[in-house]
């Protein structure tokens, strides 16, 4: 490895035809470059997906009522109905696998907003009635104060936790927020906490949200016994889809809905969506490896072919060396080292350029909600280098075998 004459000879051989050497090396470098960039892009999509789902329990589902599409027990089709408070205990009691259950209400219905007033300042915000367990399903980052607790629920306290945007619009930057009051539909609520969004996707909506105890919400806004929808998570080892279907069947029985009515209940299975995204990302990562390795293999084949040409050009030289007593291992070592050096130098250059491009993408902020931190980790880089070295060795084996088959007498006769 530290034979100066060997390295000088490698340099002279590769430098004889610089254009041919560059074009051959370009194929290998491009293969590694493509592999690194594609794997980095796949990681960027993975990080973006994780960021989009951050703050949510990925084994969760959301269930609400819709109009019935089938008549049942004397009720006509097209009937509206609502969940109620008794359904909460029924689900906990009769549906196995439920870990956390959070009944929810929203003033004005889904995506509805209501004016919130403080002094002479007013703003349209989302008003939710929630139980403390909602933070087990949808994480809430509290900047100051606290979140809702069980005592708030039991005593039907008129307290609230406001979003960062609510605080900015209704309060001056120098004003104390905790302990002050806001008014919603004529009802005053004392602010006990300020929260902010934990993710970029949907952050504006979350920062415009006001959380009120579920029991207080029902009493203050005449919702009485109504539950808008349920957020639920499954225990470890239980698929949330099973829990989702169990809740639908139980609710159909409790609310006189045909068990075959597919339109009576709406739901969103976050675990299913998360699983689909993960499968897609695994597929993209696998495709990146396949494309990158195949491109690298094509480059290695190119190097092998060029080395065959080099061996043919050096037929007399190899013959003379064999005639002077050069051992086969010396000839083999020379050819394989030339192939390996060319492959590694070209591949390392492609690796550096690929990593550099990914760094530039991050430095110039060329990212989005679903594309964050495109990068390759150390293990991936090491794996790429190992693949590169193996490719260089394989590329040199055939030319080395060809060189060893050259007989000294035939080589000296060659033109």
What does this structure look like?
The protein is of the alpha+beta class. It contains 13 helices and 13 strands. The chain has helices spanning 4-15, 18-53, 85-94, 150-154, 164-170, 203-207, 214-220, 240-254, 270-313, 315-323, 328-363, 378-404, 408-413, and strands at residues 60-65, 83-84, 98-106, 114-118, 121-130, 141-145, 159-163, 181-184, 187-196, 209-213, 226-227, 229-234, 265-269. The strands form two sheets. A six-stranded mixed β-barrel has the order 4-5-10-7-9-8. Strands 2-11 form a two-stranded antiparallel sheet. The two termini are 32 Å apart. The model has no long low-confidence stretch (mean pLDDT 81).
Distance between the termini: 32 Å
**Radius of gyration from CA coordinates:** 34 Å
Low-confidence stretches: none
Percent strand equals 15-25%
Give me the count of strands.
13
Helix content: 40-55%
Overall average residue pLDDT: 81
């Amino acid at each position: 490895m530290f034979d100066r004459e060997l390295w000088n000879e490698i340099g002279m051989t590769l430098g004889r035809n610089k254009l041919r050497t560059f074009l051959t090396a370009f194929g290998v470098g491009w293969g590694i470059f493509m592999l690194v960039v594609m794997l980095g892009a796949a990681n960027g999509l993975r990080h973006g997906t994780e960021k989009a789902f951050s703050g949510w329990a990925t084994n969760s589902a959301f269930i609400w009522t819709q109009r019935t599409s089938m008549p049942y027990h004397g009720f006509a089709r097209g009937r509206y109905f609502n969940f109620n408070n008794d359904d909460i205990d029924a689900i906990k009691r009769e549906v196995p696998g439920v870990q956390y259950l959070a009944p929810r209400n929203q003033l004005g219905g889904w995506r509805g907003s209501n004016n919130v007033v403080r002094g002479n300042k007013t703003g349209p915000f989302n008003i939710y009635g929630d139980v403390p367990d909602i933070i087990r399903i949808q994480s809430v980052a509290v900047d100051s104060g606290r979140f809702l607790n069980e005592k708030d629920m039991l005593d039907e306290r008129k307290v609230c936790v406001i979003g960062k945007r609510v605080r900015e619009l209704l309060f001056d930057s120098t004003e104390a927020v905790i302990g002050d009051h806001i008014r919603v539909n004529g009802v005053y609520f004392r602010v006990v906490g300020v929260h902010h969004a934990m993710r970029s996707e949907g952050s504006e909506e979350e920062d415009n949200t006001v959380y009120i105890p579920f029991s207080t919400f029902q009493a203050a806004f005449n919702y009485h016994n109504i539950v808008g929808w349920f957020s639920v998570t499954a225990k470890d080892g239980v698929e949330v889809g099973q829990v989702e279907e169990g809740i639908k069947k139980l609710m159909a029985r409790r609310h006189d809905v045909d068990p075959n009515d597919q339109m009576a209940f709406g739901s969103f299975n976050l675990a299913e969506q998360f699983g689909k995204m993960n499968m897609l990302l695994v597929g993209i990562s696998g495709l990146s490896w396949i494309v990158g390795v195949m491109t690298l293999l094509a480059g290695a084949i190119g190097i092998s072919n060029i080395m065959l040409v080099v061996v043919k050009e050096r037929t007399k030289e190899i013959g003379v060396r064999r005639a002077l007593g050069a051992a086969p291992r010396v000839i083999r070592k020379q050819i394989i080292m030339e192939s390996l050096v060319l492959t590694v130098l070209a591949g390392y250059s492609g690796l550096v350029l690929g990593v550099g491009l990914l760094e530039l993408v991050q430095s110039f902020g060329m990212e989005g909600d679903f594309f964050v931190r495109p990068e390759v980790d150390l293990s991936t880089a090491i794996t790429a280098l190992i693949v590169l070295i193996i490719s260089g060795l394989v590329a040199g084996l055939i030319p080395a075998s060809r060189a060893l088959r050259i007989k000294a007498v035939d080589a000296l006769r060659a033109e």
